[in-house]
Structures are given as C-alpha cells and as structure tokens.
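TICKET: design request
STATUS: open
ATTACHED STRUCTURE:
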C-alpha cells in the first residue's frame, strides 16, 4: 500500500509539473541582447557616448547651436562661465543616463551660489547639480533634487573637488497630436550608488514660474516649450559656477 501511495503521489507530482509547463508561463523569445562593458569602467556596448574625455562633438551651445566652448582638460570638461549652456545634438525620448560631475574644490559663496549647475532632461526638467557638502539651502534645491519639485531622499554628496555620479532613468512625457498631455514625465536618480529619487512624477518644466507642460507641436528650436515628438536634447547648465563633467553616456529605452 505504501508503495502504491508513493507511486500515486509521484504520478500526481509529475502530472502537476506537466500541467504547469502547459500553462505557457515560461517565455523563451525574444532573447535579451547580450551587451558588453558591464562591470568595468567602459560604457555598455549599446550606449551612446556623449563625452569620452576628448571632445565635445556631441554637443553645441543651447542658444545659438554653435560649437560648444566649454573647457576640456584631463579627460573632463568644465563650465566656461559666460559661454552659455550646452545641449546634445541628438534628441532622446526615454533613456538611462550616466554622468559624473565635480564642483570645484575652491569654496566660494554658499547655498545656490556654490558649485551650481544642472542637468536638464528633455531640456525642460532640471536634476540639480550643486555642492551640497555642508552647504545648507532649501531642500528641493539640493544635489539630486528635481529642482523646486522633489527633494532627494538622502544627502549623499561628497566633498567639493571629488567626483560624484548620477545614474538617471527618465520616462519622457507623452502628448496627443493636438499637444494635450497624456502622460507626464517620471525620473529615478541614483547618486553615488544610492537611490535619492524613486520614480517621481515631474510636474512640468522647472525653469518656469510654476511647473508647466506647455507644448509646441513643431520642431521646438529655442522656444521655452516641449516638442510634442517626444524626443528632445539633454542640456547642461552654465550657472556661473565652476563645475566639471566626465564619462557621459546614455542608453535609449
């Protein structure tokens, strides 16, 4: 009887496995692409390299679209105060961005006047760059904030002069053909390996008096509006402060 019970139980177990296999829960295609560059200092092989330490060919000035005039030295480039903000020549929708930055180790000023720059996603939505090491200011203006909208969960800023990193996951806003917003933008920010913003909604442009999703459903040029195509450049801000950048790459999602 014990043998028969064991045989019956085993038979039921096998039947259960067969039934589970028949549920089509297991998916075998499409097979994820194998990429290299993971776990070392090189960008992933499917990344778009926006700065490799040698030139600013991927960038031009934000206002005139002339050659970017920021200063390159030692594998990094530094804000050339007064030369204006720069933006990528390419436009992007959803993306993963890696960027390293360092405010000068010469401490001058305080609050928003110390190591201030910004990374404008879609040229509209600023993730703040600031020397936030022992530098009190309003919390939604610290490093890692969506400027004036979301404060970082924690302050993980390093001392001025040291390199810091952002890994940013950005979901672009979606518009109807008429320019009506269908879905807002979202962003996740990891600073120096620590999560500081967790898939927060961006309420609109961060440079306007109040957040807004004003649109121009034609190529946007230099208007203060979002291009309804869903693809826009990345902008780095000249805020009159000495801030350097290096090792910038982006993966389209």
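STATUS: resolved
RESOLUTION: sequence designed for all positions
ATTACHED SEQUENCE:
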């Amino acid at each position: 009887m014990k043998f028969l019970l064991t045989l019956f139980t085993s038979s039921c177990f096998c039947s259960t496995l067969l039934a589970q296999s028949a549920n089509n829960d297991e998916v075998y295609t499409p097979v994820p692409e194998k990429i290299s560059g993971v776990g070392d200092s090189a960008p992933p092989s499917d990344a778009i390299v926006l700065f490799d330490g040698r030139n600013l060919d991927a960038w031009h000035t934000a206002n005139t679209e002339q050659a970017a005039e920021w200063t390159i030295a030692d594998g990094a480039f530094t804000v050339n105060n007064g030369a204006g903000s720069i933006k990528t020549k390419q436009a992007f929708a959803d993306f993963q961005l890696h960027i390293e930055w360092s405010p000068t180790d010469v401490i001058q000023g305080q609050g928003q006047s110390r190591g201030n720059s910004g990374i404008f996603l879609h040229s509209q939505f600023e993730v703040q760059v600031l020397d936030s090491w022992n530098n009190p200011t309003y919390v939604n203006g610290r490093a890692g904030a969506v400027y004036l909208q979301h404060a970082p969960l924690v302050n993980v800023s390093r001392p001025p002069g040291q390199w810091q990193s952002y890994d940013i996951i950005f979901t672009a806003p979606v518009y109807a053909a008429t320019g009506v917003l269908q879905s807002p933008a979202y962003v996740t920010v990891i600073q120096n390996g620590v999560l500081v913003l967790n898939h927060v909604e961006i309420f609109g442009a961060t440079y306007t008096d109040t957040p807004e999703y004003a649109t121009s459903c034609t190529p946007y040029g230099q208007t203060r509006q979002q291009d309804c195509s869903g693809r826009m450049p990345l902008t780095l801000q000249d805020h009159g402060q000495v801030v350097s950048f290096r090792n910038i790459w982006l993966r389209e999602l």
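CLOSING REMARK: The helical segments are 2-21. The chain has one domain: 46-252.
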